From TrEMBL:
Cited NCBIfam families: leuS_bact
An example Gene Ontology CC term for this record: cytosol
Keyword list, A-Z: Aminoacyl-tRNA synthetase, ATP-binding, Cytoplasm, Ligase, Nucleotide-binding, Protein biosynthesis
Protein name: Leucine--tRNA ligase
Domain (Methionyl/Leucyl tRNA synthetase) ranges: 38-143
Family stated for the protein in its record: Belongs to the class-I aminoacyl-tRNA synthetase family.
Enzymatic class: ligase
Record keyword Aminoacyl-tRNA synthetase present: yes
Statement: the UniProt record of this protein carries the keyword Cytoplasm: yes
Pfam families reported in the protein's UniProt record: Anticodon_1 (PF08264), tRNA-synt_1_2 (PF13603), tRNA-synt_1g (PF09334)
EC number: 6.1.1.4
Length: 946
RNA sequence: GCCUCGGUGGCGGAAUUGGUAGACGCGCCGGAUUCAAAAUCCGGUUCUUUCGGGAGUGUGGGUUCGAUUCCCACCCGAGGUACCA
């Protein structure tokens, strides 16, 4: 009987679905194990062979843990809001929900055919109102919270209000907007309700603020930095300007330090931790206040080198700095305004990309040096970014290359404040070998000493303090898009109001068009039913609002008209839905709470999270932020959601190249191409056989341009060139898992993906190699052809147990590629031993089952079992079967292996030396020389020196 | 520029704390089976060689009886990041 993988795989996939073999329970006496793979965005292109790599690894681990007796949670779902579906909707008018549904069904078919042990009863989709109800709910919790720096956690906004009632905000230590005014308890009680709301908004963890964004008027939307190329939109090439817009933001900066500290507590890859660390960008230094001469104003700067303050010969403000217009003198007004305008036209990325051009303008104003009281000229320059620090720097040209270049360019003095350092060519930025000079009370001090001294002096003057600055900025949370979560927000008198939980979800409205409105509002502005009736708590027609406007009343008066208010028109960004989905899987159908305490009390957190490294500073940072918030508010028991994380590497494609002779319809084989002048052309990789030979008939049918082409062959074959590059439709090198499954089966594909190499590494795909693992499966199948209850031989047991040991170690260390080799060795050995013993072949089936679950189930059934193999206990390794009595020692001379000698393992060092030295081959090697030294490591090696 | 990861046969890769470099698989070569092919099975396959051997894990040094493994300097590739004050 042959190995009929198509029949076997279909049979067991049906069996698992029907019996809900992988359904996890939320209460169990077993230990829990939560294995999670990042859920996909269901794109129209479907899966290629690179996508399942991480899923296969996660599935092997999940199945292994099941064999080890754990209650395993291994869910899957879809991150189903997103741009491609919306883009398609704009082009075709098809509702993104329909596109998304179609794509999900396709994904599900592809995933099912790979035999994953997912608990599909827990599937979530971020675009499902039942799911995004809870995304909206978390948003509301963030809105109703503030960050108390004293307790170092998020608290209910009510506790902040009671502090304001008692003592105003003068003493409270909270994360809040920079421009928050100070007030006392009496002020607070005198504020109007609207003023109170405005002030609270400055403290809430999600808040409305005017944010500078990249606005593309032609597209009617905000663009992310990477959607802009050379100052114009990547799509369409439309101009982009920077514009202030009122947007929802997330106060992630409140968590900067905890996000940094938490990295030490989790087992994540170092490069990923490093990129989060860099992204958060903590720097220690001081804030220094410079008074502006002849103005009632001061400029605060942040510097990491307060020790160099006596070297400050000018200051530079970002052109957007709000003091610029105030302090600029009449004479400089025109020049400054021209410069500011020119800068506004450039995107921030544009400015950052152009590092070489030095530009700036003198404002005409001077600041006063805190210590010398000397005037310091104030310049503006676009090398200072408004969004970092305070948007102003004290320029120390002798110690900072950018300041140095600027000073050189504009002939500003460069005082040297370093002892024995030449600064005629470049600035001296070394902190470690610094001795400060020409600096009054700092003379002779090191960087460290000078820094603490100057901070103390600044504090005495009330003009500065030690400060820690973060590069991390609050995250803009509004998108001018249709296909995202609606905010559960309506506006009364311009102030945002949250919709109560019992009325959630607030579902996306239907719209005629998915583009921005003619008046520049987001797509939701096209909805005709998008107003909130606050009395009846439901979405109503915009007509209810319209009446108000038609009456000549302003929108703000709408309260008097039936309590109907406008709803928020923005939607949430892509990362909203993925920031807590791992918790929702624990109790995905709960309609009363986000998840029950029982469910999260049992599952706690993710034990193993597998996904791509491209999410390092997006999803993985935002999720950690949300988790810490949920932890602070008592909603989650752990403040890190994933203990261990693994990044699977990319699988690259192996493109196939034919060589067209220039200006001819002829193609030349790889080996002969140097005789002609040729252009390389990529062709579909499915036309190539394992020996790099081209299927010429197939090519002629593939695309019309090859129909009448001639081919110059070598040895009767056309050999293609190969190039390793990213798997992409445009290179025709995408390999679809469906065709692999059809030809070789899912078990072969699973094994081969693991066999390619270490999980974390990027590696090229080459379909040809799959025959190796496929014939391994055939050999495995054959091994179970004749089964009996014969006692296994010592040899059989040795093979089995060394396999158990190696495979278990490999899985625990995520070294799945070496397990596959181990299986091959095992099957090769058992085949040559003609092993038929069930007591060997039963445990072997279990060992193989995490990797190749379909064949394992089938073999298990043939072994006479009626239950699934999935929950069988993993075989126990027993050392005793591996104990050897002899060892084949390598005998080296000066570190080079010369011959081998079998000796008993219990032979002592001296005895070994004696036997080896007496050996004929040793004498032959030494040729009469006397060895200087003989190294004997029992059980390992013998090395003779001399 | 900075940070991180990597560099081993024709190819993917293995070598667990410094101890037999190249496991396992692909490809290739030879053979068996077959009318023939596919499939299957067996043998070989780092390079070089005067068949004794010699060289060899990106390059050059070092530590060691012994280095793919540890240390120093450099080269190359991939990814991340960048006027961050």
């Amino acid at each position: 009987m042959n190995y009929n993988f198509r029949e076997i795989e279909a049979k067991w996939q049906k069996f698992w679905a029907k019996n809900e073999t992988f359904k996890a329970t939320n209460n169990s006496d077993k230990l829990k194990f939560y294995a999670l793979s990042m859920f996909p965005y269901p794109s129209g292109a479907g899966l290629h062979v690179g996508h399942p790599l991480g899923y296969i690894a996660g599935d092997i681990y999940a199945r292994f843990k099941r064999h080890k007796g754990f209650n395993v949670l291994h869910p899957m779902g879809y991150d189903s809001f997103g741009l491609p579906a919306e883009q398609y909707a704009i082009q075709t008018g098809q509702h993104p929900a329909i596109t998304t549904e179609t794509n999900i069904n396709r994904y599900r078919e592809q995933l099912d055919q790979l035999g994953f042990s997912f608990d599909w009863s827990r599937e979530v989709r971020t675009s499902d109102p039942k799911y995004y109800k809870w995304t909206q709910w978390v948003f509301i919790q963030l809105f109703n919270s503030w960050y108390n720096k004293a307790s170092d956690k998020a608290e209910d906004i009510a506790t902040l209000i009671s502090i304001f009632d008692k003592e105003g905000n003068t003493h409270v230590e909270a994360s809040c907007d920079e421009d928050t005014p100070l007030f006392n308890a009496k002020d607070w009680s005198g504020f109007s309700e609207k003023t109170k709301q405005e002030i609270l908004l400055k403290y809430r963890l999600t808040y409305l603020a005017d944010t500078e964004v990249n606005w593309c008027p032609a597209l009617g939307t905000v663009l992310a930095n990477d959607e802009i190329v050379n100052g114009v939109s990547e799509r369409g090439g439309h101009p982009v300007i920077r514009k202030k817009m009122t947007q929802w933001s997330m106060r992630i900066t409140a968590y900067a330090q905890r996000l940094l500290d938490g990295l030490d507590t989790i087992d994540w890859p170092q490069p990923l931790k490093d990129s989060q660390t860099n992204w958060i960008g903590r720097s220690e230094g001081a804030s220094v206040t410079f008074k502006v001469k002849d103005h009632d104003a001061s400029i605060e700067v942040f510097t990491t080198r307060p020790d160099t303050i006596f070297g400050a010969s000018f200051m530079t403000l970002a052109p957007e700095h709000n003091l610029v217009s105030r302090i600029t003198t009449k004479e400089q007004k025109e020049a400054v305004e021209t410069y500011v305008e020119a800068t506004a036209k450039r995107s921030e990325r544009d400015r950052m990309a152009d590092v070489k051009t030095i530009s700036g303008v003198f404002t005409g104003a001077y600041a006063e040096h805190p210590f010398t009281k000397e005037p310091v000229p104030i310049w503006i320059g676009d090398y200072v970014l408004a969004s970092y620090g305070t948007g102003a720097v004290m320029a120390v040209p002798c110690g900072d290359q950018r300041d140095y270049d600027f000073a050189k360019h504009y002939n500003i003095p460069i005082p040297n404040i370093f002892e024995g350092v030449d600064i005629s060519e470049e600035a001296f930025a070394d902190k470690t070998n610094t001795i400060i000079a020409n600096s009054d009370f700092l003379n002779g001090l090191s960087y460290k000493e000078a820094t603490s001294k100057v901070i103390a002096e600044l504090e005495k003057l009330g003009q500065g303090e030690g400060k820690i600055n973060y590069r991390l900025r609050d995250a803009v949370f509004s998108r001018q898009r249709y296909w995202g979560e609606p905010f559960p927000v309506y506006y009364v008198d311009g102030m945002p109001q949250m919709i109560d939980l019992e009325h959630l979800p607030l579902e996306l409205p239907e719209v005629e068009k998915y583009l921005p409105t003619e008046t520049g509002e987001p797509p939701l502005g096209n909805a005709t039913h998008w107003a909130w009736d606050a009395k009846n708590n439901k979405v109503v027609s915009n007509e209810m609002l319209k009446q108000v406007r038609d009456d000549g009343h302003s929108e703000l008066d709408s309260e008097s008209y039936e309590g109907v208010y406008p709803l928020e028109l923005n939607t949430m960004p892509g990362w909203a839905g993925s920031s807590q989905y791992f918790n929702r899987y624990m109790d995905p159908h709960n309609d009363e709470t986000i998840y029950s305490e029982e469910a999260i009390g049992y599952w706690q957190d993710v034990d193993l999270y597998i996904g791509g490294s491209e999410h390092a500073t997006g999803h993985l940072l935002y999720s950690r932020f949300w988790q810490k918030f949920l932890f602070d508010r008592g909603i989650a028991p752990k403040d890190e959601f994933a203990r261990k994380l693994i990044n699977q590497g990319m699988i690259t494609g192996t493109s196939a190249i034919v060589f067209r002779i220039k200006n001819e319809d002829r193609y030349v084989s790889l080996g002969l191409k140097d005789k002609y002048s040729t252009d390389p052309l990529r062709v579909d990789v499915s036309l190539i056989n394992p020996s790099d030979e081209l299927n010429i008939d197939g090519l002629k049918k593939w695309q019309p341009e090859f129909k009448n082409a001639d081919f110059i062959l070598e040895d009767g074959k056309y050999i293609v060139g190969r190039e390793i590059e990213k798997m992409s439709k445009r290179w025709f090198n995408v390999v679809n898992p469906d065709t692999i499954c059809e030809e070789y089966g899912a078990d072969s594909l699973r094994l081969y993906e693991m066999f390619l190499g270490p999980l974390e590494q990027s590696k090229p795909w080459n379909t040809a190699g799959i025959t190796g693992v496929h014939s391994f499966l055939k050999k495995l199948w054959k091994l179970y052809g004749a089964l009996n209850d014969i006692e296994p031989s010592a040899e059989n047991l040795k093979t089995l147990h060394k396999t158990i040991k190696k495979v278990e170690e490999d899985i625990e260390s995520f070294s799945f590629n070496t397990s596959v080799s181990t299986f091959m060795i095992c099957v090769n050995e058992l085949t040559s031993q003609k092993c038929t013993s069930k007591s060997i072949l039963e445990p072997l089936a279990i060992l193989v089952s995490p990797y190749a679950p379909h064949i394992a189930e089938e073999l298990w059934e043939r072994l006479g079992h009626s239950e699934s193999i999935a929950n069988e206990a993993f075989p126990e390794f027993e050392e005793k079967y591996l104990v050897e009595s002899t060892k084949e020692y390598p005998i080296s001379f000066n570190g080079k292996l010369r011959f081998k000698l079998e000796l008993p393992l219990d032979m002592g060092k001296d005895e070994i030396e004696a036997v080896v030295m007496a050996h004929d081959k040793t004498k032959e090697q030494l040729q009469g020389r006397k060895p200087k030294k003989v190294i004997v490591v029992p059980g390992k090696i013998i090395n003779i020196v001399g």
